[in-house]
Amino acid sequence: MEKIPATLIPGDGIGPEIVNATLKVLEALGASFEWEQQLAGVAAEDACGDPLPQATLDSIRRTKLALKGPLTTPVGSGFRSINVRLREEFELFANVRPARSFLLGGRFENVDLVLIRENLEGLYVGVEHYIPIADDPKAVAEASGIITRYGCTRFAEFAFNWAIKNKRKKVTIVHKANILKKLTGLFLETATELGKKYEGQIEVEERIVDNCAMQLVLNPNQFDVLITTNMFGDILSDEIAGLVGGLGLAPSANIGKDASIFEAVHGSAPDIAGKKIANPTALMLAAALMLDHVEEADKATRLRESLDAQLRSGEGLTVDLGGKASTMEFADNIIARL
Ligand code: NAI
Ligand code: MG
Q1: How far is the CA of 234 from the centre of ligand 2 (A)?
Q2: Smaller CB count within 10 Å for the chain: N or C?
Q3: Active site residue 198
Q4: Rounded to whole angstroms, what are the CA distances from 49 to 41, 43, 79, 89, 321?
Q5: How many angstroms separate the most distant Cα atoms in the chain?
């Protein structure tokens, strides 16, 4: 079988622990990845004085594919978020965040939603400044949001195609074009126009973001795939993760022009790092998204079904889910079910 070169970044904190557990499961599945291990984050800064070494960038540029453990970002001072730098470097324009209710007894049963967030534009471009007045240097703060037709088109095209390929039924365009008539109006207009191209293949509707946030809490199952701009997507994707039991089970795919990077949504969890108790589910689900991406959907399905069965059994779970299993014991349980 032909091998698929892919970059592997173990990351910081619990990163190496959940990455090792995930690799063991991928190996048992017979996934065809050939890993190039590279450093990033605090691990890289400690090893070579650079939190994002050139060798890591070169590797991702070559493989166009990476599985990444969480990276610690120093607060207040220190280096800039490596996650943001990777997003910019490889033009990772779409962030795909599926959320499914795995655990029984949660607030909602059978939630199955996907939020696809525009990842580069909008109010998060970081164009902001203070305007001093008299002796107050911060009398006024001003930020600009930037949305381009090019960016919206590229993003929405990807999102509609993803939805159709993954056999989803409906796409909801989420916006605030009643107030931000131009900024999010352009997003709504471009996505709606493009949606017409997919008529007959998938249902398209639109929703204003605040109403959408409420509707998600009242009845999440009325939605299927939600597509939205950067900041709304940031907020709604965490809300959606909350509907299915929190960030610990949430994977994410960062899809870009020059590469795609797969990771867990949670961070490096310094409070439990090194204790071998971290839950590897989110990273394993990210690996499943990566398998889908390289057209090994059958393996992705086997992995998801094993995780599903394990979590629903309520047995052999990690400490965060009320169990006693270590990270590796959890991985072995998944392997036994594959
Ligand atoms: P966090 O997600 O690392 O931790 C929040 C809480 O959830 C902690 O109590 C932690 O123990 C728990 N937790 C997280 N993942 C878990 C897992 N797999 N199993 C069991 N428990 C888990 O968020 P926090 O503490 O805000 O951030 C820590 C560091 O991670 C920061 O430096 C932050 O910048 C970075 N971070 C990196 C991300 C990335 O690389 N994509 C994403 C989010 C945060
Ligand atoms: Mg966020």
Answers
A1: 5
A2: N
A3: no
A4: 10, 9, 11, 20, 37
A5: 70
Q: Which of 46, 210, 258, 298 is catalytic?
A: 210
**Domain architecture of the chain: domains with CATH:** 1-90+258-338 (3.40.718.10), 99-112+119-244 (3.40.718.10)
pLDDT for 299-338, tens place per residue?
999 999 999 999 989 899 999 988 999 999 999 999 999 9
Contacts of 160 (CB under 8 A, 6+ apart): 171, 194, 195, 197, 198, 202
Q: Is 272 in the pocket of ligand 1 (CB under 6 A)?
A: yes
> Could you tell me which residues are beta bridge partners of residue 203?
170
Q: Is the pLDDT of residue 104 over 80?
A: no
**According to the model, what pLDDT value does residue 253 have?**
98
Claim: this prediction has a pTM higher than 0.85: yes
Q: 308 catalytic, yes or no?
A: no
Of 266, 272, 284, 326, the one to substitute when testing ligand 1's pocket (max ligand atoms within 8 A of C-beta) is: 266
User: What is residue 206's DSSP assignment?
Assistant: E
Q: What is the pLDDT of residues 206-216, one digit of tens each?
A: 999 999 999 99
